[in-house]
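Dear Dr. H.,

I hope your travels went smoothly. While you were away I took the liberty of generating a structure for the chain from your last submission, since the lab meeting agenda had it listed for discussion. I wanted you to have the full record in hand beforehand rather than looking at slides cold. The sequence, exactly as received, is reproduced here:
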Amino acid sequence: MKLNKFFFGLLMTPAVMMVGCSDYEDTEVASPEADADAIGAYFESSAVSEQLSPGQTSFKIVLNRASFSEAVNVPVKATDPDNFFSLSDNQFVFDAEKQVSSPITVTFNQSVVELQKTYSLKLQVADGVKDHLYGAGYTDATYSMVIDYAWKSDSLASTHGEG
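The corresponding predicted structure, in token form, is as follows:
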């Protein structure tokens, strides 16, 4: 009988320990809110490839934003030392209620471009720091540009006559 009481005591000890008190206090922590002035300007991709045809001397780029109730301008700067490209403006212009900016045109001198050679332009907004806590996208983007011929696949279709 003493043996049964011993085993019963061993089985009950974990059950009693689980019922004990805890210092845990259930608290609710709210997620931080984005700053009311934050617009969350961003490039959709950190790397974009532009393939242009011979004779083209420009391409367009846009910027997006997370908060788009008011009209705002967002400065942009080229962060690469090459002065190969020129921007039509040094800021992206957003109209009120528009999530996508008016396009900026990127131009270059066609006479110094080699066919099938890649040239890169690195751009940055907001000094590379996101101002919107939950903003998507990237503050830095690299636009790679190559001028190449557009190759078409022409197939010589053979026709078999029935006869």
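Two observations you may find useful: Strands lie at 41-42, 47-52, 58-61, 64-65, 72-78, 85-87, 91-94, 104-108, 118-125, 140-147. The CA atoms of residues 118 and 158 lie 38 Å apart.

With kind regards,
E. W.
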